[in-house]
Design goal:
Blueprint: H1 8-12, E1 29-31, H2 32-36, H3 40-53, H4 57-67, E2 77-79, H5 80-100, E3 116-120, H6 122-131, E4 143-148, E5 155-163, H7 167-177, E6 184-192, H8 200-215, E7 221-226, H9 235-239, E8 243-248, E9 254-256, E10 259-260, H10 263-270, H11 275-281, E11 287-289, E12 297-303, E13 317-319
Parallel strand pairs: 6-7, 8-13
Antiparallel strand pairs: 1-2, 3-4, 4-5, 5-6, 7-12, 8-12, 9-10, 9-11
Length: 321
């Protein structure tokens, strides 16, 4: 028997057809935790929005994280399409905010040692905080400090400090740590541009501690609240030798017509922060609150004199609103 070239032997030399690659489609839903931690599903969408709108990644991430809880289900999940829409909406708004104060935005990078520590006037600070800080507001009655570049004197990293108004935190500081009421001040706003060098915030905080200790001797302690729902982990405060002393339970985020509004902002604009009352008094407005469970805020503290003692987790109180 003769086997032709088209017979079994020839067929044996032909490689089998390739197995089709398995293509995994993006998950239809993301979780708030995915977004906070910049898991790949969210990180890719963030990068796409940053490139499309030419806005800073960190600022867009924080703004979007502030607004995603409005869209999340009680279990914390959000549709991928809704995340994309929210990223693009916040990116467009951030782009407009940047354009409004373009003359105040630094473009050049400098080494940390080249930056100058200054007390920043309210005019510039208020414009930056009202446009670029995720809360889009300045804290009235604050003293502002900044690291400015050596050439154009533009603020690269800035913060505002004011007497602590959070009475529940103030009373806990007095009861547990012996800090008299009125002797604690709060770092209420921090903003750092993308051109800021590494460790700019912690360096600024150390300078602020020195000047307040020297010029306002009645202040014994600096405090701040770190909100992990926005992706903040407090690393700049820890690098400046601040310590986590307590936490405070989360409350739902509030929104007016799809835009975040703090209780302070609601009281200023509408005379109150009770959503049921606001809906009755303003039938044309859309007042909402988040439904998903949010993470507690963390209170970091720094003594102005001496070492700031660490507090073991078992001794840290969880304050209720």
């Amino acid at each position: 028997m003769v086997i032709s070239a088209a017979g079994p032997a020839a067929k044996a030399d032909v490689p089998p057809p390739p197995v089709p690659a398995v293509v995994h489609s993006p998950a239809a839903r993301l979780s708030l935790d995915d977004c906070r931690t910049h898991a790949p599903g969210f990180a890719d969408l963030l990068l796409d929005a940053v490139q499309r709108h030419d806005v800073p990644s960190r600022a867009l991430s924080v703004r979007t994280l502030l607004h995603l809880p409005r869209l999340a289900r009680p279990n914390g999940s959000i549709g991928r399409t809704a995340v994309i829409a929210e990223l693009n909406r916040n990116a467009a708004r951030l782009q407009r905010d940047q354009q409004a104060i373009e003359d105040l935005i630094p473009k050049d990078k400098y080494e940390l040692a080249d930056l100058r520590f200054v007390r920043l006037g309210n005019t510039d600070a208020d414009q930056i905080f009202s446009r670029l800080h995720y809360l889009r507001s300045a804290r009235a009655g604050s003293v502002n400090f900044a690291l400015v570049d050596p050439v154009n004197k533009l603020p690269v990293t800035l913060c505002s400090v004011s007497p602590l108004e959070w009475m529940r935190v103030g009373k806990q500081l007095q009861a547990q740590f012996g800090v008299p009421l009125g002797a604690a001040w709060d770092v209420s706003r921090v903003y750092s541009f993308d051109v800021a060098p590494v460790n700019a915030i912690s360096y600024l905080l150390s300078k602020v501690r020195q000047v307040i200790r020297r010029e306002i001797p009645g202040v014994q302690l600096l405090t701040t609240a770190v909100d992990p729902n926005l992706g903040f982990v407090g690393s700049s405060y820890r690098a400046a030798n601040w310590q986590q002393w307590m936490s405070i339970e989360a409350r739902p985020y509030l929104y007016v017509d799809g835009i975040y509004a703090s209780p302070r902002q609601l009281r200023t604009r509408y005379g109150g922060a009770n959503l049921a009352e606001l809906r009755r008094a303003n039938p044309g407005g859309r007042f909402e609150q988040s439904r998903a469970k949010l993470l507690d805020s963390v209170i970091y503290c720094c003594r102005l004199r001496g070492i700031t003692e660490p507090v073991p987790l078992e001794n840290q109180r969880r304050l209720r609103r």
